[in-house]
Write a structure and sequence with these properties.
heterodimer, A: 313 residues, mainly alpha, ABC transporter involved in vitamin B12 uptake, BtuC, 13 helices, 71% helix, 0% strand, B: 231 residues, alpha/beta, Rossmann fold, 6-stranded mixed sheet, 4-stranded antiparallel sheet, 9 helices, 12 strands, 33% helix, 25% strand
């Protein structure tokens, strides 16, 4: 078991670029200007890089949200942060601000976190179940706003928004991937830097406070960092749900350790998970790829219900 | 070097004024809902205010680290979110300023058998023992104990009494309903009722028969220096 998962993961990453509608011979990829060369370097590899880092970022964000809001079901998606980013991005599409899509995605995410924060401070003792309800209310509000944007948009914009909300890992070349790679690595480094504080926060807020942790500062820094990162990821790939929910839980079950010890495994396996989901999406034999968000949601929806039921008992 | 709170009021507490000399110990008594824990949370900073002075420094101006050196609060229950934190891990996290090692501290209240248990699975008495040991490891100048003996069996109560009395704690504030414990500890006593301090004086003065009658009426009996509820 100890070696099985890492080896399997590496195998998935290595095989992934070679499987798809157009099979690729390993010997052809280094011949410049060949079709294989273009597909491998310009399409498949960037796509796998995007899949890996998006998954890694979302998984780590989920782990951090679960720890900071101390609820196994709070992730940037269940609390509406990703919906906020989606709305911001759709706003940018409809009003022709295509160069600022990422910025608006980020603003949408931030807006949600600020709303959540101001509401949390009014709830005594971080009542996280109420926070989840706030997240649901926010999501409803955002989907209503998204409807308004649909209403205002023309046909091609509507189509663009719909495709966007399904989630997609389509990228051409590595140019667009750098903000994503950078933000996911920075988020990981930040989380590792705050590892000890996170461990104390996992006992209780009061205990962390009494043990000399600047609770408010750590919380604020990490939540803002997660929001920025999720904003960047969502503006690039669209909302890809449930990665941040499923993977941290599975990792916790396998490792039987607390979140501060699972930062790197969650990061890595969430990345691999999305690469695998993408591999499935690309190879189901349909004429075009199934949107990645559909695959993760099909897996994640039932898992979420399972968690709800298990939490009750 | 003293610690104080001056004429503080909020929706629970009214006109609280209290001064502690350096290394002075205090017992807080009072009926349920009198505001004892509220006062404790105020003193340790969990409830923010600008009115608390610890060792001549305003509490809210201290850095989190410096504050943790000055004061610690031990709640009546061990609340913990993460199921994978064991007793040993919790105690390791608690070790800040004390010279005593985690293993030594574990021995003081026989926690050896529990070290690999998750903190979430402990009984309330076990929680209290873990919390007490954690206070030794924290080693703050002032430690507030909120009902440290509430869930303990008689043998454990004696152990904890000895620990509370011992030199491993610098200065302590103990909230309790156990009058025998309060009497035996012998520290200065404040008695709280409806958010206000109704008595502040020496242990001896508090346990004068007339004084006791005033606070407890006929619900309390003194038998051979023990205080028994008159059921």
């Amino acid at each position: 078991m100890r070696y099985l998962f890492p080896l399997l993961s590496i195998a998935i990453i290595l095989i992934a670029p070679f499987l798809g509608q157009i099979p690729i011979e390993i010997s052809q990829i280094n011949i410049p200007n060949s079709m294989e060369h273009t597909i491998f370097w310009k399409i498949r590899l960037p796509r796998i890089v995007v899949a890996f880092f998006t998954g890694a970022l979302l998984g780590l964000s989920g782990l951090l949200f679960q720890s900071l809001f101390r609820n196994p079901m709070s992730t940037p998606f269940t609390l509406g942060v990703a919906s906020g980013a989606t709305l911001g991005t759709a706003f940018a599409i409809v009003f022709g601000l295509t160069s600022m899509v990422a910025l608006f995605g980020f603003l949408g995410a931030m807006m949600t976190v600020i709303t959540l924060f101001s509401i949390t401070s009014r709830l005594s003792g971080y009542e996280t179940n109420s926070l989840l309800l706030v997240g649901i209310a926010l999501s409803f509000f955002y989907s209503a706003s998204l409807m308004v944007l649909f209403y205002l948009s023309d046909e091609s914009q509507s189509y663009e928004i719909i495709r966007f909300t399904m989630g997609s890992l389509d990228v051409v070349g590595f140019g667009d991937t750098f903000p994503l790679i950078l933000s996911s690595i920075l988020l990981l480094l930040l989380a590792i830097y705050y590892k000890d504080a996170i461990r104390l926060l996992l006992t209780s807020y009061d205990n962390a406070f009494l043990k000399g942790i600047e609770v408010k500062r750590v919380n604020t820094v990490l939540l803002i960092a997660v929001s920025i990162a999720v904003g960047i990821a969502v503006s690039l790939t669209g909302p890809i749900g449930f990665v941040g929910l499923i993977i941290p839980h599975i990792i916790k079950n396998i490792y039987q350790q607390s979140a501060d010890r699972l930062l790197i495994p969650t990061f890595f396996y969430s990345g691999v998970f999305l690469v695998l989901c993408d591999l499935i999406a690309r190879n189901l034999g349909t004429s075009s790829d199934i949107p990645i968000g559909v695959i993760t949601s099909f897996l994640g929806g039932p898992f979420f219900v399972y968690l709800l039921i298990r939490q009750k008992t | 070097m003293n610690s104080s709170i001056n004429n503080y009021s909020n929706n629970i507490l009214t006109n609280i004024t209290l001064t502690l000399e350096k290394d002075e110990n205090l017992i807080i008594l009072g009926s349920n809902g009198a505001g004892k824990s509220t006062l404790a949370k105020l003193l340790c900073g969990i409830t923010p205010s600008t009115d608390v002075t610890i060792n001549n420094q305003k509490l809210h101006t201290l850095s989190a680290k410096e504050r943790s050196k000055q004061i610690n609060y031990i709640p009546p229950k061990l609340e913990i979110f993460d199921a994978y934190i064991t007793v040993k891990a919790y105690l390791e996290l608690s070790r800040l300023y004390a010279t005593i090692s985690v293993d030594e501290a574990i021995k003081t209240l026989d926690l050896k058998a529990l070290t690999n248990h998750s903190c979430k699975t402990l009984s309330s008495g076990e929680q209290q023992r873990v919390l007490l040991v954690s206070s030794l490891l924290h080693g703050a100048n002032i430690t507030i104990y909120d009902e440290p003996t509430a869930n303990l069996d008689p043998n454990r109560t004696i152990q904890v009494y000895k620990l509370l009395k011992s030199d491993s704690i610098k200065s302590r504030i103990i909230i309790t309903h156990d009058l025998t414990l309060a009497y035996r500890l012998g520290y200065r006593i404040i008695y709280m009722k409806e958010g206000a301090i109704h008595f502040d004086g020496t242990n001896k003065a508090f346990f004068e028969t007339e004084n006791l009658k005033q606070f407890f009426g006929s619900s309390l009996k003194k038998i051979d220096n023990h205080f028994v509820v008159n059921l």
